[in-house]
Each structure stands twice: as C-alpha cells, then as structure tokens.
Amino acid sequence: MSSGAPPASPLDAELLAELRQLVPSDALLTAPEDLIPYAFDGTAAHRARPAAVVIPTDRDQLIAVVRAALRREVPIVTRGNGTGLSAGSLPSTGSLVVCLNRLDRILELDPANLTMMVEPGVVTQTISSAAEAADLFYPPDPGSMKISTIGGNVAENSGGLRGLKYGVTRDYVMGLEVILADGSVCWLGGKCVKDVAGFSLRDLFIGSEGTLGVITKILLKLVPKPAARRTLLATFASMEDAASAVSGIIAAKVVPCTLEFLDQKTIRCVEDFAHVGLPVSAGALLLIEADGNPAAVDAEIAVVEATCRAHHATDIRAAADAAEATRLATARRSAFSALARMRPTTILEDVTVPRSELARMVRFIETVATKHDLQIATFGHFGDGNLHPTFLTDERDEAEMVRVHTAMQEIVTMTLELGGTITGEHGVGLAKREFLPQQLGDASYQLHRQIKRTLDPAGLFNPGKVLAP
Amino acid sequence: MKTGPGSLAEMDYSVLQQCMHCGMCLPTCPTYEETKRERHSPRGRIALMRAIADGEMEVSKAFGEEMYYCLGCLACTTACPAGVDYPQLFEAARAEVEEAGVLESPKRNAIRASVLRGLFTRPRLLRLIGRLLWIWQASGGQSLFRRLKLNRLLPANLRRLEPQAPAINRQFSHQLIRPVERPAAPTRRRVAVLTGCVQDLAFSDINRATVDVLLANDCEVHTPPVQPCCGSLHAHNGDLATARELARRQLDLIDPDQFDAIISNAGGCGSHLRHYDHLLTDDVRYAAKAIAWSAKLRDIHEYLVEISFRAPTAPADAQTVTYHESCHLCHGQKVSAQPRAILQAIPGVELRECAESTWCCGSAGIYNITQPETSARLQERKLGHLAATGAGTVATANPGCHLQIANGLSAGGDTTTTVEHPIVLLARAYAAEHSRP
Predict the structure, then answer these.
(1) Where in this chain does the record put each FAD-binding PCMH-type domain (chain A) (predicted)?
(2) ipTM above 0.90, yes or no
C-alpha cells in the first residue's frame, strides 16, 4: 500500500468549537500536515487518517474532551506515543484521536504499600527508573519501554522480556480510573493486596484495547528490587538446538526472568545497528537473565549453563557487568525495528504456544517460509513461548503480500492447533481481528460482543478494534 | 532555484519506506519532546515527506515551516534501528521547500541570496566582512554602541542577534598557518587541513592548534590559504545546487589522492564533508573523486586516535573539563569516544561527564536565528547540565555549539567558565612540554 488513506471527513463543527474552548490552541489539530503523522502506529500495513487530534494536558481537560465527543456521538480513539504493534491505536474513520502523551505525571510513589499512581501518558521507562530510584522494581518491560506509555501498556496488556518470571502488565495493575460511555468517571480496584469485593472489573479493562472506556489514572504494584542479576549469552548452531535447550531449562524447574532468542537474520540486523559483539554467524542466540537473591541466582545460572552445554551450545558468554547486560538487553529490544534493514516492510506476528511445543512451532515457521518463498525472521521470548515471526517483505509487491497473508493464516492455524494464542502481548487491534473468533470459539466471542454492547452501546470507543463491528 | 536530483518525488522510494514508524526516534527528538506532537517528530516528518512523494499532499507553507522547525540534529539517526537515512530525506525535503517557494518573502529571499549565495560562496569577501567586524569590535565601536544603548534603534530580530555575533579573531587562518608545514621529526603522513568559514573568522586559533597537534604527531600539513565554504550551510538549508558547486570547488582545491587524510575540525562541516560521495553521485566528472575524498575525510579527533596519537607529557591549563558533543560530530559522524580519549590523555585533566551530552544545544546551524525561542530553551537546558558538573572548562568541537554555549554563559553572567575545543587543550599541553625546564 504505497498510497495513504483518503482524507477523513472533517469533524462536526460544533464539537470542534467546543473542543477549542476546552484545550490550549496547540492541542487541537485539524490541518492535514498535523493529521497525516497520526495515520499510523507501529504496525506496518495499516493506515487511516483521523478527523482531528486533541492532546489534553490534564485530567480535567481529558474528561471534558471525552464527554464532549460522547455527547455528539463522535468515535474516540485513544493513543499514547503510537508504538502499538496491532494497529490498536489506529484512527477509525471520522474519529477523534485523543492523545494522552501530555498526561505524563507520576502522581504518587507509596513505598509503604509498594504502589505508584501514574497518569496514562507516563513513559514506561520513567516508571521503571522512578521505582528503581526508590529501591523498588516495576517488572513489565515491553521492548518499546523507552517510548511506549503506561496507558497503552495497560490497554494492550503488554508483555516484555521478563514475562517468563514476572508475567504481563495485568499482574502489576492494582487500580484504574476510567471514563465510561455515559461520561461518568469510575474507580476500579485499590491498594489492598487482598480485595474480593464485587466483580473483577479492573481486569475487564486491562487489555480491552481502548474499546470499553478511557483510562485516566493507573495504580501500579511494585516489588522489591532483586538483589542480584546475572546475564548469559548462549550461542547455538541451529534454532532447534536453542529451542531444546529452553525446554531443558524449563524441565529442570529453573525460571530465569529472561529467556530471549534471536535467529540468524535477527542477530545480523541487530548487530549491524547496535555493535555489541553478537556472533553474526551463529544459527541462534539465547539471552538469559536470572535475578533474585545472590545464592539463588548463582545456582540458577549454573543449571542454565550446564543445560545449554548439554544441548550443544557452541559458546556461552557472561555479561561482564550490569552495563554490558543493559547493552545486550537494549540491543535485543531493537530487534523488530532493526529487521527493517533487510526489507522495507516488516510485519510482526505475536503467536504464543505452550513451551513444550516451541521446537515444533519454530520448524513449522521455517517450512511455511520456504513453501511460500518468503523471508521470515524469528525472535522473541522463548521462555514464555511467545514468538515473533516477522515477515520481511515490501508492501508494494502485491503478489508477495497475498502470500504473506496466506502464510500468516497457516501460522495462526498451527498455533491454535498446538493450544497457543494469536497474541501473547501485542493485543488484537485491527491486525489480528479476523483470527479472534477462531481462537475464542463461538460462546466466548459472543460474550465479548455482549460486554462491548453493554459498556459501549453506541460503539464510540475505538470502534472496529478487537471485535468486528 | 533548481535542486536537481534528490527531491522527494524523484528519490528512491525505499529510503522513505525504510521508516517503519516504530517510534524509537521519539524520545531522542528535542522538538517532539518540546511539543509532544507527531509532526514535530522524525517519523512524523517522514510521514509528511512520504505523503508528498505519494502525491497525497502538496508542498505547503506548513510543510516548509515543519522542515525548518527540525533542528537537523540527527539524534534520530543514532536511535534508529532500521537505519533510515534521515540526513538525505531532510536535505531533499528542505530543497523541495525552497524549490516550491512556499516560504518565500522578499526579506527571506534577500537574506538567503546575500548570506548563503553571496557571502558564504566568496571566502575573500567573507574575510573582508570579518575584518570590518573585527575593527568594529576591537575599536570599541561595539561597546560604545552598546553603552549608548543604540541597539534599541535596531529592528527586533537584529537587536536580539547583535550580542550573539561571534568575536572575530585579529588574524585569520592564512595569517597563522603557512600553506605547507613540516614536522620536526621525519614525516610519517601527509594531511590537508580544512579551515572552515566561521571557524576561520572566529576561531582561527583552533585551526592553528589543529595544525600544531598534527605536526606533533609527525604529519606534514597542507593548508590552502584561501578555501571555499564546504557547503554544509547550503545543503542543510535547501540549496543543494550551491552545495554541489562548492563541493566541486573543494575537490579542485584539494586532491584526495595527494594525502593520507583530509582533516576537518568542525563537527557540522565534517558531517557534510564526508558525504561528498553521496552529494556528487550523479556528477560524471566528479563522482569518482568525491568517493576518494569521502574515504579520506576524517574528523581531527578520529584521526588522532586512528594514528595512535602521542599523549602529551605536560598538563594543559584546564583542570576540570566537561564535554558537550556537537550533534553532527556524534550523530552525524559517530565520533564520540575519541574526543574523550584525547581529553583524558592530557595530564591533569579530570573529565566530568554532563547529563544529556548528546542533546542539541540549540545552535543547529542557523537555527538560533530562525527559531529563537526553541533554540533558547535548548540553550538553557544545556547550560543547566554543564553547570551541574562544576567543571571550569566546557570542551566542544563545533563553532556553532562553541558560540551558543559561550553566549549563554556570558548572558547568564558566568565569567569564569571557559569554552575550548579539545584540540586546543591538547595543543597547549604539547606546547607546555617545551616551556618546562
């Protein structure tokens, strides 16, 4: 798709006039030069221009803006820094994009309760650093954590490199404030570790991808900072060896916090960008990190090292210090973007399988690539079974794009056959909407639709995402 | 003004496509951080460029203003894992803006014609103006002017700029440096030194120091006394035709085949100079020579480290030094460790890192003239970080940054902190070796 989306119809004039009263003059954008840059998020093959963009600077403005749009039945698409990988924050036709990246304050750090209250536009890295400064730890660490905002992380229920041991964003959200479709503001959850009053509505909003309401405040759970951390880089001749080493580590009942892998294409692209000394001729790499109390970390690393050797690791290197460990993790975080060095369009999948099926899945992806004459690079979070097979293609080659789509369907089908999921951490958005009924089954899919109809009867929150209209 | 090849619609589309809008550039972009608006981010600007290449949007006044709101600091290129060639896109976009004439006004046209094409293409005229400025400053005219508050008579933008004008040196490079200078020890390498424009007028002592350190490292140094501007100002301001013409003149003056290296000591110039191969790729007569030139072009710090420069045995006068990285030296040329290595090799120097050392100081070519408000905010932010180190000397290797920081310090009443080029500190240490008993 080399030509962009057609210009969207202009927004209701009365709404514009009202918004102009509510926000500063540089916070309401309607000119083409302002709107074109909002026609996408981090997803490659989708594009749509909003009718207008509004960037409120505080909670009161945000609530007033959302209420104004709801009153006039104008669809609302919320967005942070637009790094999503499922087109979840892509504008819908005629929509008002409400950009939350100016709501970027940490409201409270409460060490007595191990919590932090933040606005949705705070960049995740800022949260991580603020926790660290208080000798605490916020474990979720999406690859894009230096850019992505916490509101987006909660809305998409983002994962990250430490998912294996620490889970996903959901596991660290204790409370949420949301604006509902009738304009009311609702608080869900609280600071109590144990709280079983009523339905778990907070969880309903986590991962709802902006389709049920607008998040205005988030209460996060923090944990003590691990006392020690050690990082290993293990090199393998093939992906299968690496996959079997991972199965071996899990079978040995060791849970490192990070167990990442990169295939050869990814290793080369990452090294080309980051220059951290990755072995560019290796068939596969595992980046492994253990954290916790020092004695336990040493014991875990010893098992990991022995297991890697038993599964034919050709080289095992330990990060010399924290700085090197950070360099390696940062290099790994660039994997998706670095792959664009090979072909201009990168389409990232997010399939996840039970860990026992990893080797089979990896083999299958290779078969699909050969069968359809496509380049697919694979990297991801081996430890939690979350794979990112990435199609390296060119959106201008229509025939190839058709083959990409066929291959994608085959990969999804296989994933579901193996008991996996179509998305481990990026969300459904638009990109994976067509596959959702297949995964959920009829009863669950209808329940999803019913919930959406109940909470958003007019269909104004992020229309068309997750569920087909 | 005809731009020739390189406009957005004509360029290789894959350069535009390379941006997969992952957003890795966002936290490194000073203008995005300032406004949090997508159009003020690298990927937002590329989206606009692509819309133009796709015929979805005309080159408009707003597009032109956006391209000039970009600092061109290239921090995004360091952050970009996909390897987007932002410098090429940026220059093509500004060239397109100039060709379309969307920002034209009689005043802007007159300034561009007189400054870019009139002054900065004529080295002798530039020196004559420099000489007149020096007389004005040295004769006390300037201070009298300021004491009598006559600057109130100037139009607003000139009134603001007047105190920012660089202090002109008494002697220019050709008066300080002979065309060929040979080292005391046997010659091991032959190099050519580029003297620059602002560097030649305001910082000719830095050029002299550059020659001195090269001599101290057994290089035979060739410095043509009259040199054309390298064209960096023109390329960065949308005048690629003049930039190409100046590059050809540079290649006529200095034959890369005659030297082991061609040395630049100004971050901004060097960043442009090392891409002559790209600039002249379609020029049948000059393309091959330009490739040879780009292969030989070295930043002075980079070259000294490459030839394993000799550490001085005597100290320089500076004790606590912090280093501000010129955008085009660190992001444009990827020279970041070498200036630090040089500073640390000087006995007695304590290098204190400042926060955000690679964040733009707001000078950005002529950005401080075209976008004074954003420039001033960046200057303030930079000064805060520099002051927090408590260092007595700020080292930096680009005339624009040098002036921006020095002006900021003096405007804030700081009379003790000095600004120096790292090479000047090194040259002083070498010189001190001889003055010791």
Answers:
(1) 46-225
(2) yes
